[in-house]
Write a structure and sequence with these properties.
The chain contains 13 helices and 41 strands. By secondary structure, the chain is of the alpha+beta class.
């Protein structure tokens, strides 16, 4: 069947349906419609010029291409508005926000001083618009609608629901406006307890502007909201659905669910405290079959000590104390081969004691997560009786991290032939790597590809991600599956967490709908705590529900780019935070071990004062180079910092006794002559 062609007023050639192959090759640099300026989605019909030698590369949605050349609009009733191709940065007369670019409606009368509105604003219903006059039906106040009996299929879709089907209808004899009788009789407000029990939904005769601006999808079918089609929506909750979807039940929505529920064993998001048990322990069991407790016959035992390939010193297996003493927040740990008398003598020593470390300071150098004793269950599943420790330096490993496989073939995130991942480590202060999956820095253990010129690197937490997960943000369907992003797709799927295109190496995709998550959002912890707040904030996926208005981050004071993005939010005190504004737990330093080691750097600061390596909180500028080392300053520059946050160090050396601060490059430069204590 040949593609239907259309003649557009701004191009000499007919515009026709663009094939998938042409989308990915001939039109690589224009992934948005130049009519409504929204992203194209995989199921959208996209029209452009298919002439081989034509350089016209702009693309249109079908409905944008078929917009009338001239309209009357209630915000400008004195003159008609003409369809116009704009490349001028003029503010839209309706939304007052964005520059008009692409197709728009413009008044040609000179006295109106270039009155111009977005194409989307022309068909969307804006709350600031004056009330439209009502004739026979409020959806079409210009002309009367006449009842018509239909005994055959209609040649054009219903202007309300978009369906083309046989049945009674109401039509306009002047402008070919046509709606089903059932659509014409829809109530202006109706309750839909199956989909949105909180509030009744209001009928809108076009997609309201707020949903166009933030690219909302139908909350039921997760498909695009067509600009000129009717919707039911809730102003309080920013909830919007197609009118047909509002009446659907979707009883078979889990028809494609996994038959074997055992395949899905991990439910995200996970708290930071549970990431080790929920991710790394199962990963080591999958790869190695079991987690080995060091003994005299394995792991290169040398006099009760054990070799680890990524650490220069021998490690000792340290057992947890009895459960009676482990309830204390500052209980201690001991080596299994030491006598109690020796331990008591060491506690009296004034020097630093590596054998008696408060539990709050035990951070694994592999996964950079805290080491905690897990209460033993009846079946003993997942129980670890101790951890690995270095006598010569503060180096600790979970038992599972000690048993990490040294090499992995065909890892799910990098399953290429001849590409092998090797376990490696980096310096605590230098040579950090950025994980390919979550895009965060790490100074712990990571896997790197050994293939020539392949720069794939992944931290061990992301390497431990299962192939199939459940996520609390998508309860409609049972599972999300890990998918590789192997090719550059001109129509990337937007992540439901950050609403950024899925350019990452992998994503988690629902097999039943378009819902997907990037690797960074999957790893966001379930809860976070800001230093200015006294309570935990939960990762929230629908903060806009029952809360109209804009959101501002309480840390950086910058507006959330989209009310639908995930944020750490408290409904009681109405505080919201960007995930990246928690740099140590959900930002770019989420995989960095800062530790408790302190430094005396006499060449740059008073030797009586100790410096700790941490995220800078006292100052915004380094006392040595006077450069910005903390991205919390004036509102204009803050936007640039958030866009280019990878170019700035939010970490450095901070004095415990005064307000001295040194950025990371300056501190590392002088630390070679310093004495670590």
């Amino acid at each position: 069947m040949e593609d239907e062609s259309f003649l557009n007023i701004y191009h000499e050639h007919p515009l026709s349906l663009i094939s998938n192959s042409a989308q990915n090759h001939d039109h690589m640099y224009y992934p948005r419609c130049f009519g409504c300026w929204r992203n194209f989605l995989p199921e959208d019909a996209i029209y452009g010029c298919n002439r081989h030698l034509c350089r016209f590369e702009l693309l249109l949605h079908k409905e944008c291409m078929e917009m009338p050349r001239e309209i009357m609009h209630p915000v400008h009733p004195s003159h008609s508005l003409t369809l116009y191709l704009s490349f001028m940065h003029i503010k839209c007369a309706i939304c007052k926000r964005n520059s008009v670019w692409g197709l728009s409606y413009k008044c040609s009368q000179g006295s109106c001083d270039g009155f111009e509105i977005h194409l989307g604003c022309a068909v969307g219903l804006n709350d600031k618009d004056p009330a439209q006059p009502v004739l026979n039906h409020p959806s079409h106040p210009q002309h009367e609608l006449r009842f018509s009996k239909k005994t055959r299929w209609c040649p054009f879709p219903c202007d309300a629901c978009g369906a083309t089907e046989k049945g009674d209808s109401y039509t306009c004899n002047i402008c070919d406006y046509w709606i089903h009788e059932s659509c014409a009789l829809l109530p202006a407000s109706k309750e839909f307890p199956h989909h949105h029990p909180a509030h009744p939904l209001s009928l809108a005769f076009g997609v309201p502007t707020v949903y166009i601006e933030y690219e909302f999808e139908c909350a039921v079918c997760n498909k695009t909201l067509l600009l000129r089609r009717w919707v039911y929506h809730c102003n309080l909750c920013s909830y919007v659905v197609h009118i047909n979807c509002a009446n659907s039940m979707f009883d078979d929505e889990n028809a494609n669910a996994i038959d074997d529920e055992k395949e899905v064993s991990t439910i995200f998001p996970i708290t930071v405290e549970d990431m080790y048990e929920e991710m790394i322990v199962p990963f080591v069991k999958r790869e190695s079959g079991q987690i080995l407790v060091p003994s005299d016959h394995n792991n290169h035992n040398i006099g009760g000590k054990y070799k680890f390939s990524n650490h220069p010193h021998l490690l000792t297996f340290v057992t947890f104390l009895s459960s009676s003493s482990s309830s204390s927040s500052h209980h201690h740990y001991k080596k299994e081969d030491e006598e109690e008398e020796e331990e008591e003598e060491e506690e009296e020593d004034d020097d630093e004691d590596f054998d008696s470390i408060p539990s709050s300071e035990l951070i694994c150098d592999g996964c950079t997560l805290a080491i905690h004793e897990k209460k033993q269950t009846d079946d003993g599943d997942g129980y670890e009786s101790g951890y690995m420790s270095c006598d010569e330096c503060k180096y600790f490993l979970h038992l599972s991290c000690f048993n990490l496989p040294l090499e992995i073939l065909n890892h799910p995130t990098h399953p290429l032939n001849d590409h092998k991942l090797m376990l490696r480590n980096v310096g605590k202060l230098t040579d950090w790597i950025s994980c390919r999956i979550c895009r965060a820095y790490t100074n712990g253990l990571y896997y790197a590809c050994t293939y020539k010129d392949c720069r794939f690197q992944i931290d061990i937490k992301c390497a431990s991600q299962p192939n199939t997960i459940k996520h609390a943000a998508h309860p409609r369907h049972n599972h999300l599956k890990l998918q590789l992003v192997t090719t550059v797709n001109i129509w990337p799927t937007l992540c439901a967490g950050c609403f950024e295109p899925g350019w990452d190496a992998v994503k988690y995709k629902c097999s039943s709908c378009r819902f997907s998550l990037c690797g960074r959002c999957v790893m966001l912890p379930a809860r976070n705590k800001h230093r200015s707040e006294k309570h935990l904030l939960s990762l929230t996926y629908d903060a806009y529900v029952n809360r109209p208005g804009e959101f501002y981050c309480s840390s950086c004071e910058y507006q959330m780019i989209n009310p639908r993005i995930w944020m750490y939010h408290c409904r009681d005190c109405d505080q919201s935070f960007h995930p990246k504004c928690f740099p140590a737990t959900s930002g770019q330093y989420r995989n960095i071990k800062f530790g408790t080691q302190q430094y005396v750097i006499s060449s740059i600061h008073d030797p009586r004062h100790r410096l700790s390596f941490q995220i800078i909180t006292k100052k915004k500028r380094c006392d040595l180079c006077h450069g910005v080392c903390y991205a919390n300053f004036d509102r204009y520059n803050r936007r640039i910092i958030h866009f280019l946050h990878g170019l700035f160090d939010g970490v450095g050396f901070q004095c415990e006794s005064c307000f001295f601060v040194a950025c990371k490059p300056c501190g590392v430069k002088h630390i070679e002559d310093a004495r670590a204590i």
